[in-house]
Specification:
Shape: globular
Protein name: UPF0352 protein HT657_01820
Number of helices: 3
Organism: Ursidibacter maritimus
Number of strands: 0
Helix content: over 70%
Number of domains: 1
Family: Belongs to the UPF0352 family.
Pfam family, one: DUF1414
């Protein structure tokens, strides 16, 4: 999704591969996969960001980045 990242491509690729393998292992259909990933994003924001306004701002930025990434595919 991001065009620039402080993380190495290899690190991101390995994490993405693990997530894909897990979803495939459970034979998760698209809707279940999106529900699980959405819940994961919510959990990450709630568990790591205490300020509700900052949570909302990061969620908005995430949504914008997701929408933008779909335009480039």
């Amino acid at each position: 999704m991001a065009t620039q990242s402080k993380y190495q491509d290899k690190q991101l690729d390995e994490l993405l591969n693990d997530l894909i393998v897990t979803l495939e292992k459970h034979k998760a259909p698209v809707d279940l996969s999106l529900m699980a990933l959405g819940n994961m994003v919510t959990n990450i924001l709630v568990s790591n960001i205490q300020n509700p306004q900052q949570q909302q701002a990061l969620a908005d930025a995430f949504c914008s980045a997701l929408k933008q990434s779909l335009k480039t595919k």
